[in-house]
Amino acid sequence: MPRLYRVDTGDTIGEISEKQKQFLVDMLEEEDEDDQDYFINQDTLELFSDNNCDPELLALLEGALDDGEDGVDIAWE
């Protein structure tokens, strides 16, 4: 299972399924085919919610944003 983590700290956000990883790949912009990191913020989470994001994945991503934080870079491996 892919591990989702914060780029700035390396802290694990959680493990995600291949289907959840594919949702991220489909929904977020990649700079090239090897790109695996993404910037998320509250607007991103609202977009995900509007596009039927898996509730478990959405909860993991919401937990990755600290209170008062504008956004965070996340990645998977």
SSE string, helix = H, strand = E?
EEHEHHE
Instruction: Report how far apart the termini are.
Output: 9 Å
Rg (CA only): 11 Å
For the secondary structure, the number of strands is 4
Helix content: 25-40%
The tally of domains stands at 1
Strand content: 15-25%
Number of helices: 3
Strand order of the largest sheet: 2-1-4-3
Query: Which consecutive residue ranges, at least 5 long each, have pLDDT under 50?
Result: none
- Sheet/helix structural class: alpha+beta
| Mean of residue pLDDT values | 89
Shape summary: globular
Main sheet specs: 4 strands, antiparallel
Structure description:
The protein has about 80 residues and is α+β, with helices and mostly antiparallel strands. It has one domain (about 5-75). About 40% of the residues lie in helices and about 25% in strands. The protein contains three helices and four strands. It has helices at about 20-25, 40-50, 55-65, and strands spanning about 5, 10-15, 35-40, 70-75. The chain is globular, with a radius of gyration of 11 Å. The termini are close together. The model has no long low-confidence stretch (mean pLDDT about 90).
